[in-house]
Amino acid sequence: MYPCFTFCHILGMFPYNINALTFEISKPKYILSTVVTCVCCIFDLAILYSIIISKAINYEDIISNLEAINYFIFSGFILIMTHILTGPRMRLLQTILKISLKLSRDSFQKLSKLVHLKDILGNIFLFVNTWMYFYKKQSIQYKSNYLNVFAIIFGTYIALVALQMNFMYMNCVYILKACFKKINDRLSHMQRLMINDIKSSVPRSSYHIQRNQFLLIEIKTIKKQHLMVSNAVQMLNMVFSLQLLAVVTITFVETTFELYSYVVRWQGKVFISLDRRLLDCFLTTMSYYAIKLALLVWFCETGKNQAQEISTIVHDVINSTSDEQIKNELQLFCLQILHRKNIFSAKGLTIDATLLTGIVGSITIYMLILIQFLITMHSCE
After folding, report:
1. What this chain does, per the record (predicted)?
2. What is the largest CA-CA distance in the chain?
3. Is 264 strand, coil or helix?
4. 205 φ/ψ sector (left φ>0, alpha ψ -120 to 50, else beta)
5. Contact 18, 94 (CB under 8 A)
6. Residue 255, Cβ density class (10 Å: 0-12 exposed, 13-18 middle, ≥19 buried)
7. What is the DSSP string of 267-313?
8. What is the pLDDT of residues 185-218, one digit of tens each?
9. Residues in Cβ contact with 120 at an 8 Å cutoff, skipping those fewer than 6 apart
């Protein structure tokens, strides 16, 4: 997670020191984070005032103004929640760090490569998208003034903060997914040992008794690990739920309004076209939101699948043994799994493939509604 932590530190939103694999709140960094948050809140309110009341910032049509208002409201909310949840997030990161130490070296290296690549490329993509917006859309569509330039610079900053929180959540999910996979691998290995014992023609001996005792200890260890990872999932959902809701809302509203602004035109009737001068700007913006949402859903969906697979493997292990003690311990493990719904959610909104399809369907519906409003507005003139 070091690329993500580094970007947070540069943005002034990482009030922690990492000492000997422990997270501690740094007083100077926390004060800096507080000052940055307060200043950003003032800037955010000033920009909203300039759009809504004074009209000093005007994007020339109602849809674009509503898009900007939505963006600054929810991005500001993410910024505030990032600061408020400093303590709970530190405890979550400490828990995730403790859990990740149980992963094998190879698993950890593979995990690190993907996390680092995602974090670095994601931030580069955001900078490219901002450059496209500033140098193309701004110069072609809107009147350039110092307030518009300031709004873009500040918007880029809060977008970077929101992106780091989004990536931090994904990284935590990916680590928890790796932990669930390790539990599945240990259970599968245990099942193979039991099957080999059944096929063996060697009579029951002290070796088998010792093997069963070892398996009982292994099951209890796996149960403790599963409980620890499940608690981390619950903690993760609590810490990031409000920020995730804001991210999903921004993605939905921005995608809908951007599609409408770029594609829909009125030339005596509704005309679907695309300004070729803004094609690259449109593609980078849509790609940014689509990839970010797809990655979020993919991490959560695959993590949930690994967690749910544990129950299936445990039942297979139960069917592979005849020892009553082992069966009883595995049945207790099944009860523990039933009481732990390891899904990644935000205040009841499950982050999985159904969310992605739901957002795509909703964008289509609201695009049709906006087009209908456009037709009605011009028919009344």
Report:
1. Gustatory receptor which mediates acceptance or avoidance behavior, depending on its substrates.
2. 93
3. strand
4. beta
5. no
6. buried
7. SSSEEE---GGGHHHHHHHHHHHHHHHHHHHHHHHHHHHHHHHHHHH
8. 988 888 887 777 655 555 555 666 777 788 888 8
9. 3
Residue 344 main-chain phi, psi, to 5 deg:
-95, 115
**Could you give the CA distance from residue 179 to residue 29 in angstroms, rounded to a whole number?**
31
Residue 62 in tokens: 């109602």
- Per-residue pLDDT of 23-37, as tens digits, reads 888 899 999 999 999
Alpha-carbon span 201 to 349, nearest angstrom: 53
pLDDT tens-place string over residues 51-68: 888 888 877 778 788 888
Q: How far apart are CA 375 and CA 266, in angstroms?
A: 9
Contacts of 158 (CB under 8 A, 6+ apart): 40, 44, 72, 75, 76, 78, 79
The confidence band for 46, taking pLDDT boundaries of 50, 70 and 90, is very high
Q: Are 279 and 320 in contact (CB under 8 A)?
A: no
**Is the separation of the CB atoms in 140 and 277 below 8 Å?**
yes
- Percentages helix, strand, coil for the chain, rounded to the nearest 5? 80, 5, 15
CA dihedral of residues 243, 13, 67, 52 (deg, nearest 10): 110
Nearest to 175 by CA among 348, 306, 81, 278: 306
Which of 85, 77, 82, 78 minimizes the C-alpha distance to 13? 82
Two structure tokens written together for 361: 């369907």
Q: How many CB atoms lie within 10 A of CB 306?
A: 19
The reported pLDDT for the residue numbered 72 is: 92
Residue closest to 342 by CA, chosen among 208, 265, 233:
233
